[in-house]
Amino acid sequence: MFAARVSAARNVQRVARSFATAVESSGVKVAAVDNNGPTSSLTVLVKAGSRYESQAGLANALKNYAFKSTAKRTALGTVRESDLYGGVLTSTLGREHLALTAEFLRGDEAFFLDVLSSFVTSAKFTRHEFQEYVAPLIEGDAAAAASNPAILAIELAHLIAFRQGLGASLYAPSHPHFGYKDVQDYASSVFTKDNIAVIGTNVDQAKVTELVNKAFASASSATGPATSASTYFGGENRIESSSGLQTAFIGFGTTGAPSAEVATLAAYLSPSPSIKWSKGTSALAAAIPEGASVQSVYLPYSDASLVGLLVQAPTAAGVKQAGQAAVQALKKAASGVSQEELTSAVAKAKFAAASAADARAGLVATIGSKIFSGSDLSVASTLSTFDAVNASAFSKAASSLVSSKPTYVAVGEVGSLPYADELGL
Amino acid sequence: MAIGPLSVSLAPYVQSSKTLLKWVQPLANWYANASRYRQYGFKYDDLLVEENPTVQRALGRLTPREAYDRAYRLKRASHASVLHAPLAKDQWTKPEEDVRYLVPHVTNVVAEDAERAKWDNIVVKKH
Fold first, then answer.
1. A129-155 residue pLDDT tens
2. Quick check: A76 and B116 CB within 8 A?
3. Which of A3, A174, A353, B36 has the smallest count of CB within 10 Å of its CB?
4. Which residues form the signal peptide (chain B) (predicted)?
């Protein structure tokens, strides 16, 4: 349908994808990919995730302050002008990065880079905006997280597994102790040139590079906040929650750069079927009781990974049964898998990585995880690591993972949910 | 001559010229003292007409401390009014304390309202 509409002249141009990194003279990294789609996007990725916050909830507050008044335009002006261009502005917070994204029609990159960069270089952080707009958003985020036991389980799992740094929550505490000045101080500490990367899709790399040079010229050249390397601890914890399903997270963590072996383990454990309405072919899928669900969780970060299974069921007994099956599957993965199972797991993990890079959000995440370390940005390099996974490497990685201290989190009726030793951990 | 936040004002014109300011300032100080609002513990911005949406929005932007002090000054001055006499001399507002704390917020609100009106009535032409 789109091919019929696009004129012949445009079909000829912009055929090649470009995966390139350029470190600008201003110190901001730029990468661009051109897929010939009708809409473009620009993402300003800042190393300002919850890992770097000096106080609990500051990163969430900074994310919610995005697109409010800057020296160049007010909050209303930003929204109205973006509306007239037909653009969509979003800000998302991860544990390592804050992403400010603008999606727009081809040709409008100058305006939207200006909108994104003016927040980074000249945001006003006024008191009344914090009170009227930002504080309700922070509360709303925290309330949404508190009513979702899966989110609670993952947040607590990170805290137990990594303690500081990656253990910090993505959400603010229910009664935050910071004001607008604290957010301003945090912003000035993280918005430095070394900490910023600009990733564009369907934009011309040379043009974006030139715009970035001008836009971020006034950004601070100081070094960003220091963070210590992650250490994995592990442990057990449980919290009461009266909304949603009974939930348990059973997982392990590793330190070091994300490895294809751990991604393969997550794919091997995953009981989700490839065909809709089927139960799935893995042994774990057959052992899960009716009504319960088990999801494989794989969360890679720059220097650590968390992998495991999220078990949910309407009753605590269901969680116990599904949890025991999950632990069995984990132990079986560590003890040895057949070549056929390994091949299908590698294929599943490779496909997951490749299809994530197909969509805009996933592509930005794939590039974003590598752009700050200066490694090769192409998707092919990510996928080629899966070709090196063989049976011995896989069993070595799996057994060392499973023999470390597990991270077990239970969310729901704390009196009846199982303990780690009851599940066989 | 410039249209101020709520009224016409010549102040920006006078302040732009050093000689004019030198002549007008002593007259302005005498007038401020003679109007005797300082003898009732007020700051000038306490006297701004607040019964309109603009100043109400600006009042919402005061810090809790500023809002509390403003209410206290009003209560104290009401008491002085009941007694039909100004306050004791040590409670009069000093000229250096008489800071325009509300007018910057009012100016911002007026500018924001004007911007909203501009965006609501904008005519977009595509070339």
1. 999 899 999 999 999 999 999 999 999
2. yes
3. A3
4. none
Q: How big, in percent rounded to 5, are the helix, strand and coil portions of chain B?
A: 60, 5, 35
Domain ranges of chain B: 11-112
The amino acid that residue A86 corresponds to is G
How far is Cα A174 from Cα A119, in angstroms, rounded to an integer? 26
Kindly give the pairing relationship between strand A29-33 and strand A21-23: antiparallel
Distance CA A373, CA A33 (A): 19
Interface list for chain B against chain A, based on CB atoms closer than 8 Å:
60-61, 63, 112, 115-116, 119, 122, 124
For the stretch B25-81, pLDDT in tens is 999 999 999 999 999 999 999 999 999 999 999 999 999 999 999 999 999 999 999
Whether the CB-CB separation of A163 and A230 falls below 8 Å is answered with no
Question: In the numeric block, which tokens belong to residue A37?
Answer: 């789609």
Structure tokens at A178: 């910071």
Owner of token pair 């509390």: B68
* Contact status of A107 with chain B (Cβ, < 8 Å): no
- One-character DSSP codes across A97-119: -EEEEEEEETT-HHHHHHHHHHH
Q: Are the C-beta atoms of B49 and B84 separated by less than 8 Å?
A: no
ipTM above 0.85, yes or no: no
For every residue of A355-408, DSSP letters joined together read HHTTSHHHHHHHHHHHHTTT----HHHHHHHHHT--HHHHHHHHHHHHHS--EE
Mutate to test the interface with B, among A68, A70, A72, A74 (most CBs of B within 10 A): A74
Q: Which of B75, B56, B59 has its CA nearest to residue B67?
A: B59
Tokens of A104: 């727009």
Ordered DSSP codes for B36-53? -SGGGT--GGGGS---SH
